[in-house]
Design goal:
Blueprint: E1 9-10, E2 26-27, H1 30-47, H2 57-87, H3 92-112, H4 133-178, H5 182-209, H6 213-242, H7 247-272, H8 287-300, H9 310-328, H10 335-364, H11 368-406, H12 411-422, H13 425-451, H14 456-485, H15 490-521, H16 544-547, H17 554-579, H18 587-606, H19 615-640, H20 645-670, H21 676-711, H22 750-756
Helix pairs in contact: 1-2, 1-4, 2-3, 2-4, 3-4, 4-5, 4-7, 5-6, 5-22, 6-7, 6-14, 6-15, 7-14, 8-9, 8-11, 9-10, 10-11, 11-13, 11-15, 12-13, 12-14, 12-15, 13-14, 14-15, 15-17, 17-18, 17-21, 18-19, 18-21, 19-20, 19-21, 20-21
Length: 763
């Protein structure tokens, strides 16, 4: 497989200076780009200085300082490059040549800018920037080219480390797949866990360093699969070892291994910028992207009447309208939305016909009246397309919101767990059919959301969600069948729990995705953290020991990640509760949403994403979170004055608990911490205390809503039930909210998994 680091984003500088890096060396990571930007800026300033007849001493000194600064910076840079070359023998020759070229170019620039001490810097007796500007440009080009080569070679080392790490994971997976004894499995899985942590570190750095948002989204999707599948692989393998003759257990395990291999392969495709057999990736066109391109072409007619044909424009509209059939043919699209989409599709054809008619006339006779008619036709066509876009967005997001609320109780999963433990094969078969129906609904929802996601990264997230539902549904079914065949098996029960949690987690992620899609539609966009992944001498080698000087160790990383994921789940629960309130302006809802938003930012911090870039940012966010919690407690006190005595005392008690938690969090966030160990302890404590406050918030929101309803305070709280007409599933378990997840997928320390594994359960 190719490991070339070249990709789609080249390096360039001011065109006026004639500078540019080697056209064959292109850059796709922020770390490489950001290293080059200051150098390009300095050299461009140097080249573009204004030639004046008289030059002051200040000007001459400034030119000399810039030249010396460039030379010194290049010298330090080359020293690092040479150290990297010594650690990577296979690239040493190429790296050394590039370093020599860079050093030589830096020295040339220093010589040509050594003008401050000369009486006549423009004298032919001494070659300087004033007498040989062409020489400076050549030296600058050589410098940029050689520095870029060094950076790209260093980037290639990172790619090689990821490939090597992937190969180690694959080799250990093959051993795990063939293992036949529990003892051997424990030993190999321990090794596998360490290798997966190493792979997660390397790919996490790479993901955050990628410039291409589409590739970054694909990398995030693949890493999410690997994260969740690690726990699935553990329980599925244990089940298979415990019940070696069970066909459904084998199918369940094989599915996990297959999915992990696909995810590993996709990671390598992304980092090497390659596809199997050289094929090109052809992603399906969404309605949003089709409408955007169509409108650009239509509006382009204002500038040029001849740059495209009417057949081309008609074909583009036909493709868009074909995609709207995904909505009109869907059994889950409401009658009202279907009718509106069909009407707008018909109107779009008529508007285009009118536009083409005026357009053709304007090509033959460019009169003022015809150009005004053309402008009107352009505006009407674009307006119609905007209305069509708004209608499909409404259809997709309203369907998603209703489906996610309808399935929030996870009744089918609960029924499968109960009937599986009972060994009731007939009931399990009945509920697996219901789960398959639910899967088809959710898959259809993902397909429709993809059309209206608004950005390529969100499109990829929708495709990932669709794949997850497609794969996880059958895996839950095979796990449930295994439990029904072995109802007393603790490991079979644990395995089903893990796959059900994966399903619940994906549903929770869909709520967040829906929020992001709506944010894009309404013009609200967040930022991503810039994270650099270039190697440094002695660092980022492909082993865990080399990673330790610059990262948390395995146990610390796992602990923070686990707490972060618990925060993620709690924010989803809080958001779900606040959405049930009819009065969204209620003070309790407002503060609850604010706390949830801040907790989500802290979760993103544990993944190396979001707006919190340093531990100090995290501590500051924790302080603000605590302040918001205190405000919520004040709102609870106000509510207590409006309820009956029995409820009042209980509500005041809960408010005091929240105040105490927030006070402790503020004290922790403001406390000083020196050194890595103390800082980790402080980060851990802040996230833990935030999680505890969010847990209490999850309990308070439904309680407050109940008290408001009971005492008829305000404008009501709960929204009406979603308009789904399917038969509800009746089981003996509560249907109101999902069970609280004690464990989280793939984030618990892998070492703890291995230590605590109990393979031989009592029957």
């Amino acid at each position: 497989m190719a490991t070339s680091p070249c990709s789609s984003s080249g390096v360039s500088s001011s065109s006026s200076s004639g500078l540019g890096a080697d056209a064959g060396l292109e850059i796709r990571t922020r770390s490489v780009e950001q290293t080059l930007v200051p150098l390009v800026s300095q050299i461009t300033t140097l080249i573009n200085h204004k030639d004046k007849p008289k030059r002051s001493d200040k000007t001459l000194q400034a030119i000399q300082r810039v030249g010396q600064a460039v030379n010194l910076a290049v010298g330090r840079f080359v020293t690092v490059g040479e150290a990297i070359a010594n650690e990577n023998r296979e690239l040493k020759e190429e790296m050394s040549v590039a370093c020599i070229e860079a050093r030589r170019a830096g020295e040339t620039i220093a010589q040509l800018t050594d003008v401050a001490s000369l009486d006549h810097p423009e004298s032919d007796s001494h070659i300087t920037i004033f007498t040989d500007k062409t020489g400076v440009v050549k030296a600058a080009r050589l410098l940029l080219s050689s520095v870029t080569k060094v950076l790209v070679l260093a980037d290639r080392i990172v790619i090689k480390q990821i490939i090597t790490s992937r190969n180690k994971v694959l080799a250990t997976m093959e051993r795990l797949e063939k293992v036949s004894s529990f003892q051997e499995f424990v030993q190999i899985f321990s090794q596998f866990g360490n290798e997966m942590v190493e792979f997660a570190h390397l790919t996490g750095d790479r993901q955050n360093d990628l410039k291409d948002e589409k590739k970054k989204a694909r990398m995030a999707a693949s890493r999410a699969v690997l994260e969740k599948c690690t726990m699935m692989l553990l329980t599925a393998s244990k089940t298979c070892l415990r019940h070696p003759d069970c066909e459904s257990a084998r199918i369940n395990k094989d599915g996990v291994f297959h999915r992990m291999r696909l995810a590993l392969e996709q990671v390598i495709e992304i980092v090497t910028d390659s596809r199997p057999n050289g094929e090109n990736e052809m992603a399906p066109i969404s309605i949003y992207s089709g409408i955007k391109e169509f409108k650009n072409k239509v509006e382009g007619l204002r500038e040029n009447l001849y740059f495209l044909s009417k057949e081309n424009l008609s074909t583009m509209l036909e493709v868009i309208l074909e995609h709207t059939e995904d909505f009109t043919d869907s059994a889950y699209t409401s009658h009202e939305h279907r009718e509106h989409i069909l009407e707008l599709s018909k109107q779009a054809k008529m508007e285009l016909e009118q536009l083409v008619s005026v357009w053709m006339q304007a090509q033959n006779q460019k009169t003022k009246d015809l150009m005004e008619d053309l402008e009107v036709a352009i505006l009407k066509t674009c307006q119609c397309m905007n209305e069509l876009k708004r209608e499909v967005h409404s259809a997709a997001t309203s369907l998603a919101a209703d489906l996610l609320k309808y399935h929030t109780d996870h009744m089918v999963l609960k029924a499968l767990k109960i009937t599986g433990v009972e060994g009731n094969l007939e009931a399990v078969a009945e509920y697996t059919c219901k789960l398959s129906e639910q899967k088809e609904q959710l898959v259809e929802m993902c397909r429709l959301l993809r059309h209206v996601s608004g950005t390529e990264p969100l499109e990829i997230t929708c495709i990932h969600a669709e794949d997850t539902f497609q794969v996880t549904g059958p895996q839950i079914i095979s796990a449930a069948e295994t439990l029904a065949l072995h109802p007393s098996s603790k490991i079979a029960k644990e395995n089903l729990e893990v796959f059900c949690e994966a399903w619940e987690s994906q549903l929770s992620d869909m709520s967040l995705l829906l929020r992001e899609i709506n944010d894009v539609f309404e013009g609200r966009r967040g930022e991503k953290r810039v994270y650099l992944s270039l190697p440094r001498p002695g660092k980022h080698n492909a082993n865990l020991k080399a990673l330790k000087p610059v990262k948390l160790d395995t146990e610390e990383q796992a602990k923070i990640a686990k707490l972060g994921l618990e925060l993620h789940l709690l924010t989803s629960d809080v958001d779900s509760e606040t959405e049930k309130w009819e009065d969204q302006e209620n003070e309790i809802v407002q503060h609850g949403q604010g706390m949830s938003s801040m907790a989500y930012s802290m979760y993103l911090f544990t993944r190396g994403e979001g707006l919190l870039k340093t531990t100090q940012d995290l501590f500051h966010q924790a302080e603000i979170f605590a302040t918001e919690g205190t405000k919520l407690a004040s709102a609870l006190h106000a509510l207590s004055d409006q309820v009956h005595d029995d409820d009042k005392s209980f509500l005041l008690l809960e408010a005091e608990k929240l105040i105490s938690m927030c006070r402790q969090l503020q004290i922790t966030a403001k406390a000083s911490a020196q050194g890595k160990s103390a800082t980790f302890t402080k980060v851990d404590a802040c996230i833990l205390k935030t999680r505890n406050a969010m847990t209490l918030l999850c309990q308070l929101l439904p309680l407050c809503c109940k008290l408001l309803r009971k005492n008829k305070v305000g404008n009501g709280c709960l929204k009406p039930a979603p308009p789904w007409k399917e038969d509800r599933i009746r089981t003996g378990t509560s249907a109101r909210t999902p069970e609280r997840r004690v464990d989280t997928l793939g984030m618990k320390s892998l070492e703890n998994h291995v230590t605590n594994m109990t393979f031989l359960e009592s029957k």
